[in-house]
Amino acid sequence: MNIAIRADASAAIGLGHLKRCLSLAQALRAQGAAVTLAWREIDLDCAPLIEAAGVSSVRIAAGRVSGELIDVRDFLAAVPAAERIVVDHYALGERWHRVARGHSDAKLAAIDDIADRELAVDWLIDPNFSADPAAKFAGLIGPDTQLLAGPHYALLAPAYAAAPRCVVHEAVRSIGIFMGGTDAANASLLALRALRGRLGFRGAIEIATTSGNPNLAALREAAACDTDTRITLDQGDLAAFFARHDLQLGAGGGATWERCCIGAPTLAVIVADNQRPVLLPLQTMGVLRVLAEEPLDEAAIAAAARELIEHPALRRSLSERSRALVDGRGAQRVATALLASRAERRAVPKPARVGNVLSARCREHRRSLGGPTGH
């Protein structure tokens, strides 16, 4: 089966959309599909990342999306005829989908987690947490759209399913920092200064980032003055990075589910508005800790990190609860759903509602803390 995927990356967009599409592409290829990823070159050269994942790709144009009709025209002209089209782009919605459907026999899937526009697709994939995914997309998708929602469908690279998990130690010997592939807000440097200056942490610190980080020079300058700080660039997946440190500081987004899968005790930072409704419920469930202050400052980072460093039982609990939420096989589940025939799709039982499962875990966590459980 031929499958075409449409996604972009840039300093502003980040690398998250592209990375989760590459994870899905690898899972589709593993199940026998031929996959082509179509992308616009904006301000990052994505070719090395795509090539490293072993996925065929085509640049459809340069510059940001200027209109859905222009973009879908460029896409259809560039990719081979496909039986499935997957779109992961906040700037593309129903108009794009309907034109693509009208010019091909393909079934369409959208990967979306913000629910801010209508989507004319056969499958909707939302790997993020939502107490009620059906209500989240009510009025935005058709009655026949199959909804694949929740961390059960988190689109992680193949390495995560069998990767070594984090082992929680009594002492925090090292800390990992990953604030997204581009980190336009320079949160990595802020976190480093908070840990070294405000907190006085003297263990090893490793900062993972990419060559597309616009603040890379400043990070390198700071690391050059600190023999216990190192920078790791352009890793294909971060499974080993998340496993080897006793504590992680990181932005929300797709890396949230990667950390959960590895069981890395995490202090999460909200760097985009759409991360807030995902991260805060996870904190309530006892899956991670969240820094929700705006603007983010060194004092808040240091105080939150100190709590986790000084309480190994808390870190152990976060690790166990996060690991139970994500098993690393979400991309394979989505690939299986996309490749299934119509008859097979009807026969596949629906998974338990994520909202019900997570709400039960949330009540359990509150009960363990001696608080009200709600109804």
Quantity of strands, as a count: 13
Number of spatially distinct domains: 2
Class per helix and strand makeup: alpha/beta
Q: What's the overall geometry? A: globular
**Strand sequence of the main sheet, in spatial order?**
3-2-1-4-5-6-7
CATH architecture of the largest domain: 3-Layer(aba) Sandwich
Rg value = 21 Å
Low-confidence stretches: 352-357, 368-375
Helical segment count: 16
Q: What do we call the CATH homologous superfamily of the largest domain?
A: Glycogen Phosphorylase B
Q: What is the terminal separation in angstroms? A: 46 Å
Main sheet record: 7 strands, parallel
Average pLDDT taken over every residue: 91
Written as H for each helix and E for each strand, in order along the chain, the element string is: EHEHEHEHEEHEHEHEHEHEHEHEHHHHH
Approximately what portion of the residues adopt beta-strand conformation?
15-25%
CATH class of the largest domain: Alpha Beta
Q: How is this structure best described in words?
A:
The chain has 375 residues and is of the alpha/beta class. The chain has 2 domains: 2-149, Rossmann fold; 162-325, Glycogen Phosphorylase B (Rossmann fold, 3-Layer(aba) Sandwich). 41% of the residues lie in helices and 18% in strands. It is built from 16 helices and 13 strands. The protein has helices spanning 16-30, 47-52, 68-78, 94-102, 133-136, 159-162, 187-198, 216-224, 239-244, 254-262, 276-284, 298-310, 312-325, 330-339, 342-347, 354-368, and strands at 2-7, 34-41, 56-62, 84-88, 107-111, 123-126, 146-149, 174-178, 204-209, 229-233, 247-251, 266-269, 289-291. The chain has a 7-stranded parallel sheet, with helices on both faces. Strands 10-9-8-11-12-13 form a 6-stranded parallel sheet, with helices on both faces. Strand 2 (34-41), helix 2 and strand 3 (56-62) form a beta-alpha-beta unit. Helix 7 crosses helix 12 (298-310) and helix 10 (254-262) packs across helix 13. The protein is globular, with a radius of gyration of 21 Å.
